[in-house]
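COURSE: Structural Biology Practicum
ASSIGNMENT: Worksheet 4, Part C
STUDENT ID: 0417
INSTRUCTIONS: Below are two proteins. For each, the amino acid sequence is given first, followed by its structure token string. Answer the questions at the end about the second protein only.

PROTEIN I
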Amino acid sequence: MNDRRNNLESQIAKSLAIWTHKDQVDKLGNPYLDHVFHVANAVKELGQDYYVVGLLHDAVEDTKNRKSLMSDIVFYFDKKIIEAIVSITKKDGEDYFEDYLNRVVSNKIALAVKTADAKHNLIRTRYIEDKITRKKLGDKYLKASRYLSRMNNRKNY
């Protein structure tokens, strides 16, 4: 029964991620879904909840209809997944380091997923041709990766 539920949750999360990101590309022109699947697969060994949140880690902030997507998430997933998605979703106007990352670290699933996300974003910045954008994003994701890794290490003790 649990395997069936996990499979169903995974399929729903994949469907929502595909629906949200299907026409999006990253700064390199690659399908944004490549990044989404990379992050989800990076945390998959931690458990089903991590994998689902990995699939949906950018979905709410990247959709034009946040309320509708959040309604679907609340309908299909349990409280742990909902709380992690709320924690990992950056709000409009929110300071990335002061507000957003401090909320992310308060949720262990969001923390693990955001750590994988920041590391993958850091790797991808190497390939950005515009030097100013590459430097700006590289600095941001390096700082975020270091901070999140430290927080992960503290939570694991």
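PROTEIN II
(use this one for the questions)
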Amino acid sequence: MPGYELGALAALAFGLLLGPVFGLAAARAEPGSPARAFVRAAAVTLALTAVLLAASLLRARLGPCDPWFGVPLFLAAALPSALLAPALAVLAAALAPRHPVRLYAAAAALSLAATLARAYFGPAASLHDHLLGFWPGPIYDGELVLDRRLLSFRAATVLLAVAAAALAHARVRRSRGALTVAALTFGVAVPLHLAGGAATRAEIARALGAVREGPGCTVHLPREKPPADADRLHAECERDVAETAAALGVAHPPHVTVFAYRSAAEKRRLVGAGETDYTKPWLAEIHLEDTAASPHPILRHEVVHAVASALAPLPLRIPARAGILPSGALLEGLAVALTPRGRWSVHERARALRDLGLAPPMSKLLGDAGFFSAPPARAYTAAGSFVRWLLDTRGPIPVAAAYGHVDLARAFGTPLPALEAEWNRFLDGITVAPELRAEAAVRFKDPGLFGTRCAREVAARGSPHGTPRALSR
């Protein structure tokens, strides 16, 4: 389908491979005119973009999704990078004719490093990179929006492409006119770049307007929230931090900072995640939507992520292979295990899931990407029950060890298949009420974002039946 995913792949291809190849080839073919070289190279990358879009549209016409629905996101992701990459390659050839590839690679590496640094140290969930495209935020956010910040940022990317090509032309031809064009376009691109960036913590705090601080938590929340409700939310956070630390044996939990937004739309505008609440464990920082419900339905889950960061090493402070490949089953399983449920326990839900024949194997959930590719309701429930059982039967010390180094056999002294078999025998003794069985039949048959046809369209149009108009024909 034409949409964000295809556009993101195109942006990466242009930024890392196709853009420099065509840009440097055009620069060699037109050594005396970088402007003409840029036009030639950009014509090729834009033509490839058009071919890719046309091919995906033809495939999408076979149905059942609306073929035009994702086109704006595709264009926003692919087109600016298709222009900037060859422009930077032409500029690299003008500035370093002997080593243009090295200069281009250095520029791409610097761009990526700056983007990752903003993601790591800043509050935002989304990533914007002029050369390599953009990452919209948490993978469970079904609806992606072309908001003002993103449009401003990608407009800046186009202007930077013009500025780079003009600067290359001014360098080779010593043209004052080209230098003027470069200065003007760069001057316009800078404010657009700044307007397209994610909000800072100070800006978020000002937008929300109220704050409550204590020994365990700092909570930023809407200024219009009644003082009693604000105090209640802060007290809940303090209690969650203390109880989670006690359950995990963390003597000195990190100080947790919470940003509670008025709506999903406000959260999306400020940090790039709309429907999905999230935590940056290495910062012990939580971003969630405010609610009048008490206790908050999501806060405890996110607090577990923040407090459990004390158990895992840098850089991400989460269970991750090689430090960067997350183990979703341990990460989310622990949060579910330590979050009080409603009417039914996590074990009862896991047994109902297994009875439906939909329970994913624990070996798959604990494998690379297996957790995140499974339907969320199934993955979270199974992992939560498994980790809760480990906590109850083995205690927090081996669970903390497994969380830190992602090696269950080493932490528990038992291979994973044996642990899974013992957990399943435990579930054999769990009784499932008829009401839960009926609820599970609906809840767990949801295939999730990656298993839903036309998922972005379904999310954006908000069909009450989970089916876009194009699918109902």
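ANSWER KEY EXCERPT:
Q1: The first strand starts at residue 127 and ends at 129.
Q2: Strands lie at 127-129, 133-135, 209-213, 217-222, 256-261, 278-280, 285-289, 320-321, 325-326.
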